[in-house]
């Protein structure tokens, strides 16, 4: 275990005395802070090799704790990935397996996504039962404000931010949700998906004023999270789920933040969705750096409250980097040779960062090469809190691994994904990828070929058969989110208020 002196030295003299001082005594019930970025690749962070985007706070967090070289999300898009994280179930068992948009089927109640059912066994519900005060700040996406899926019905004591992930496309909104109350935000009402007017000058900064408002929602959200920490009772442990909407497009941060970067630019005119942006590369980098600054602000708030020495601090993302809205993943080398991106079950769509610091428990400076996934956080955080882990959880407890011990036994807990018309599975170094309904199976050796360039299926028929068997065992039919060939329980036009989940 690192000493206090060596731990603080790891953080560096310049900064963040701050990010996480080492604990001198082990407390049985740590505060837990889980920061979840939105559509962020690991390779967009300095601690994973990024050179163009500055992320000093997350980098110091990794130096003070550990980073996982290979971490997976539960799904390559937002809502089901969050469902997997908060319920500990992979996509073969999860309630929510796609970004089902309520407004497409329920025009009378347009806000929100497919709701978690009443009484769902969630991470915040279990931590609250263990005596934690629980708060969610940022983007939800697991049930509209009038459903049983809303945050306060799923184990959170406090919520502030966007209920609906489509609403979170607008960083200058006219309202946010404060617990179960819709509260106004001082901004003009404008659509977050537009194409640049033909008559306007794309090189004139004044042409883009129409795509920004007066009040930037991330400023309000981080302030409420800081308040949650500052006002907490000293003897009550906290679980803070900070689900920032950044750096999900649109590319619309404040100009003062965009000004901190200077790259060769070509204006983005809105033709791939979201709002136009004169300096799209600088805007995206600024949004990633904003996430990093928020990590620093949360650490500072914990330190001011005297809580930082006993905090388990986690940074991750819900899925891989995106492809639209003016982003340029090639310029930032965002997938670092991995195939695919958001919405795909290729490595580039499901590989995410995972940085963990836990003074007195997690050995500083570790780079852990054992593959893990966000589904593991459910049992890991329950174990850290001294709460019982349900037998049906699909993840593994990582607390021993974090302390420098052995990797968990995954003999009966393979990595399994399904999304739309694809399935994927990983066991050891092998990854299977299947397209449905034809059932075409690809096979890759990820140790030799992390970029999934060489399909070995024709050479290894017995291995292919093994993967097909394991995928069949992992998939439990969900009639609300059927795979191709399965019957859907959701008739078109049916209201969610009349449906069971």
First CA to last CA: what distance? 46 Å
- Portion of residues in beta strands equals 15-25%
Please state how the strands of the largest beta sheet are arranged side by side.
Answer: 7-6-5-4-8-1-9-11-2-12
What is the helical fraction, as a range of percent?
Answer: 10-25%
Low-confidence stretches: 1-26, 492-501
Oligomer description: single chain
- What is the helix tally? 11
Total E-strand runs: 17
Mean pLDDT level: 92
The biggest sheet, with number of strands, parallel, antiparallel or mixed sense and barrel status, is: 10 strands, mixed
Shape: globular
Radius of gyration: 22 Å
Task: Please provide the ordered H/E string of secondary-structure elements.
Answer: HEHEEHHEEEEHEHHEHEEEEHHEEEEH
- Which structural class do the helices and strands define? alpha/beta
What does it look like?
The structure is a single chain. Strands 7-6-5-4-8-1-9-11-2-12 form a ten-stranded mixed sheet, sandwiched between helices. It has a four-stranded antiparallel sheet with strand order 14-15-16-17, covered by helices on one side. Strand 6 and strand 7 form a beta hairpin. The N terminus and C terminus are likely disordered. The chain has 501 residues and is of the alpha/beta class. It is globular. It contains eleven helices and 17 strands.
Task: Outline the fold blueprint.
Blueprint: H1 4-11, E1 31-37, H2 56-64, E2 66-68, E3 71-72, H3 78-87, H4 123-129, E4 133-139, E5 158-162, E6 175-178, E7 181-184, H5 217-230, E8 238-243, H6 255-258, H7 280-304, E9 311-317, H8 347-350, E10 351-352, E11 354-357, E12 366-368, E13 372-373, H9 377-385, H10 399-402, E14 415-419, E15 422-427, E16 430-435, E17 440-445, H11 461-474
Parallel strand pairs: 1-8, 1-9, 2-12, 3-13, 4-5, 4-8
Antiparallel strand pairs: 2-11, 3-10, 5-6, 6-7, 9-11, 14-15, 15-16, 16-17
Helix pairs in contact: 1-2, 5-7
